[in-house]
């Protein structure tokens, strides 16, 4: 069976009906996104991979009683975020997200594309500096919106904040990034 044309609802119906191939397809479809998202929290690949496996194993074990309200991707990101924070909190004995890595935000993405287009090493440094000026919450919101392609409503639920707060976080982040990049370019051309 070809799973590529199925909606998340159809795919979930097959998974909840014990279709292991559909479940494998969902792993193939979303595990790389989960791994990239995990890199925002830690560089420990083994921890990220363990959490992904645990989330998928838990989903398979609870497939009969689980109702996925929005999308499989959103469900997985929510479960993954909760589990990675819990795991890292246990490992590091801290509860905050101080370890949200700004360097990981520079992965193969739109921002990296801008850097390559400009073809300058300084551009990378300016962007990195600008990203460091964002709060952890801003970095996470930008990543979820532009790299994980979640809706503002999904981000709000995932981060436990209002949709209006998501809009504000993203707007202020983009404004800050744009301001830093434009000011640096104007400064260099003088």
UniProtKB/TrEMBL annotation:
Belongs to the sigma-70 factor family. ECF subfamily. Residues 28-93 form the RNA polymerase sigma-70 region domain. The keyword Cytoplasm does not apply. It comes from Echinicola arenosa. Transmembrane segments: none annotated. Signal peptide: none annotated. SUPFAM superfamilies: Sigma2 domain of RNA polymerase sigma factors, Sigma3 and sigma4 domains of RNA polymerase sigma factors. Keywords: Sigma factor, Transcription, Transcription regulation. Residues 125-176 form the RNA polymerase sigma factor 70 region 4 type domain. Gene3D superfamilies: 1.10.1740.10, Winged helix-like DNA-binding domain superfamily/Winged helix DNA-binding domain (1.10.10.10). It comes from the Bacteria. Pfam families: Sigma70_r2, Sigma70_r4_2. This is Sigma-70 family RNA polymerase sigma factor. Coiled coil: none annotated.
């Amino acid at each position: 069976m070809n799973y590529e044309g199925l909606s998340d609802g159809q795919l979930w119906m097959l998974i909840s009906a014990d279709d292991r191939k559909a479940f494998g397809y969902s792993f193939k479809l979303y595990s790389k996104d989960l791994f990239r998202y995990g890199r925002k929290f830690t560089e420990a690949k083994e921890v990220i991979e363990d959490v992904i496996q645990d989330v998928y194993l838990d989903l398979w074990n609870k497939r009969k009683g689980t109702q996925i309200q929005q999308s499989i991707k959103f469900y997985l990101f929510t479960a993954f975020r909760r589990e990675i924070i819990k795991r890292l909190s246990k490992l590091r004995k801290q509860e905050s997200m101080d370890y949200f890595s700004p360097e990981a935000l520079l992965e193969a993405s739109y921002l990296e594309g801008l850097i390559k287009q400009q073809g300058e090493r300084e551009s990378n440094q300016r962007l990195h500096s600008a990203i460091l000026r964002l709060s952890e919450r801003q970095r996470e919101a930008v990543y979820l919106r532009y790299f994980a392609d979640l809706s503002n409503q999904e981000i709000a639920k995932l981060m436990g904040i209002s949709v209006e707060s998501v809009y504000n976080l993203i707007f202020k982040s983009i404004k800050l990034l744009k301001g830093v990049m434009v000011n640096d370019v104007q400064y260099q051309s003088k």
